[in-house]
Design a protein that fits this description.
Blueprint lengths: L8 E4 L9 E6 L3 E7 L4 E5 L24 E8 L9 H8 L7 H7 L3 E10 L2 E2 L5 H11 L6 E3 L6 H10 L4 E6 L9 E9 L2 E13 L2 E10 L5 E7 L6 H10 L4 E2 L15 E3 L4 E6 L1 E2 L5 E2 L2 E6 L9
Parallel strand pairs: 1-10, 6-8
Antiparallel strand pairs: 2-9, 3-4, 3-5, 5-6, 6-7, 9-10, 11-12, 11-15, 11-16, 12-13, 14-15, 16-19, 17-18
């Protein structure tokens, strides 16, 4: 079997690079996923090297979209919301499954799509040292898209693509240098993400209630000294009433008497403090001058290490 790796990551930029050496692709709001096929076994692993093969079995039918003898592919697994746009909340209904017996039923409710944008390994050899231009050409040659597997188009005009992304309120774009190599466990400015809106994975340090059900979360992030700072509260977003009720039950064993934050939240009255163990992805407009999130909106609960949720 092929050993899982940590994928190459883009760096955040505000300006879209110009020049013939740059292409731009839509940044899909989903779950980063790598496919490993050693010629016999197909496996899926996320960016944290956690296996997801049995969570997304419909994406493992390798012969349905390639005749390669072996490969490693990089891409994003997405699910669509009712508006037809990629929804992180929806894809987490699949990625968050912990009981495998539920997979078959949830597959019918939440279909997913695999958006492929790179190839690392092909027919027994790593191709990470090839320039991106050649890797994309190879990917196009060996992948036959179907109803579940798609190739992410590359555009020459990053600004034009970004305007389309803004019109449809998508997450953003990733600009990539056509000469770039794929650096395993790397991160540099050869890949640049430009976001239409911001998001952060934050830690839940407290809650408030209405009629016995949690109606808002008090969020925090850690600094480099491992101090836990309050960054704002959020009560809106994509959680359903049932998910709020279930969350109310989940936090029962996490209740504590003293606030876990080093600073004082504005919503101290009637707050119930929690051990900072649960994490949630939050979308927001910007940071305010007081180090808090402006207009935060809950996207989904995520399985993430609290200590890695940094300011």
């Amino acid at each position: 079997m092929l050993k899982p790796i940590v994928p190459f990551e883009p760096v955040f930029f505000e300006e879209i690079p110009m020049g013939d050496e740059w292409i731009a692709q839509v940044k899909w709001d989903g779950v980063r996923m790598l496919t490993y096929f050693d010629g016999q076994v197909v496996q899926l692993f996320n960016r944290r090297q956690r296996e997801r093969t049995h969570i997304f079995p419909e994406l493992t039918e390798i012969s349905s979209f390639t005749s390669a003898k072996s490969l490693i592919l990089d891409g994003e697994v997405i699910a669509l919301g009712e508006d037809g746009k990629p929804s992180f909340h929806e894809v987490m209904k699949r990625d968050g499954i912990r009981r495998l017996e539920r997979v078959k039923d949830v597959m019918q409710l939440v279909p997913v799509y695999y958006m492929l944008f790179d190839i690392l390994y092909y027919n027994g050899e790593f191709v990470t040292n090839l320039p991106l231009k050649e890797r994309l050409e190879l990917l196009s040659e060996i992948i036959e898209p179907n109803d579940k597997i798609q190739l992410v188009p590359a555009q020459n005009e990053g600004q034009t693509l970004f305007e389309v992304v803004k019109q449809h309120n998508l997450e953003g774009i990733v600009c990539k240098n056509l000469t770039s190599r794929y650096i395993i466990n790397g991160k540099n400015s050869d890949w640049r993400k430009i976001k239409n809106y911001q998001d952060v994975i934050a830690v839940i340090g407290g809650v408030t209630y209405r009629a016995g059900v949690v109606n808002s979360m008090l969020l925090g992030l850690y600094d480099d000294q491992n101090q836990f700072w309050y960054i704002g509260h959020v009560g809106t977003g994509k959680l359903t009433k049932n998910e709020w009720r279930e969350f109310t039950k989940v936090i029962e064993p996490l209740k504590i008497e003293h606030k876990p934050f080093i600073n004082s939240p504005e919503r101290v009255k009637n707050a119930q403090w929690l051990r900072p163990l649960l994490t949630v992805k939050v979308q927001y407009i910007e940071w305010t001058g007081g180090r808090s999130l402006r207009q935060p909106s809950i996207q989904a609960f995520v399985d993430h290490s609290p200590q890695k949720c940094k300011l």
